[in-house]
Fold:
Amino acid sequence: MKYKILGNTGLKVSTLCLGTMNYGGKGFFGYMGNLDQHAVDEQIKTVTEAGVNFIDTANIYSEGLSEVMIGQAIKNLSLNRDDFVLATKVRGTMGKGQNDSGLSKKHLVQQVEGSLKRLGTDYIDLYQIHTADPLTPIEETIKTLDDLVRSGKVRYFGASNISAWQLMKGLAYSQYNHLDRFASLQANYSLDVRDIEREIVPMLLDQKVGLMVWSPLSGGLLTGKYKRDEQKEEGRLKSFPFPPFHEERAYDILDVLTPLAKQKRISISQVALAWLLHQSAVSSIIIGATKPYQLQDNLKSIDVVFTEDELKQLNEVSKLPVEYPANVLKIMTMDRSSTGVDFLNA
Structure:
């Protein structure tokens, strides 16, 4: 396993992170999977033996059951909790009350206690806001998260699914008020969905914020399981097509991925994951699986290397079209470009 420092912290995380959205199968998240405790134990045992030290969950996953099952697995396997970086999230609805969702101080303080109890731990390594809350000032949220860090219940805090300007506003508030800051952003990123490269990736690099990637295989599209113009078999992509993806572009990308995987004698999934591991902004990729062989296959992606030409092929077939203001900025700043870093053509 390989490890990276998460953002501007001293925290080492494995470059592959175990995703647990498919644990429990309760409520809405039954669409994502319904692994039972035995399967969860086996997954955590498998990734631990591979050197993964990073596990990501959320309080809303199966209405808290995912957190419970992770905590139980650590006990069942007699693992040292301190060897893990446990990450969970807060924002979604966890009850029927008026304040049972959002990022208010009331909800955050209430939910951190719930997550601690369900995980069976006295601290959370990375506590992430699951998305923005338009009703709560970011100042209230960050001040509360800072208080949770100072209390010892949280070590670091991060964000997920927010825009570049929202994250930057939070970082600025922390800086000018001498508060703890967002250590990481969790975002949707893959060869098929490279939208974050427009604004978010340059901001993360500039501000030294770590990037955790979710849906690195674009909901399964980049596994090679689905073919152009073929009826999709039963699965999450057919029953609940989430996250948003660019299906036709994905098939164009697969036209490059497939022969490349064959040439390297590895799976298509490994090639797609390895491309992400070669992106400088990426700290860790969240991998989730419903079957043991899928998890074993994904774990092998850390060993994949590319030639310069292979990376060029993958970048070309998946690159974003240049849009305003990038197209104007490229022309107007040509005489100032001396860093060698070109986000406009990434």
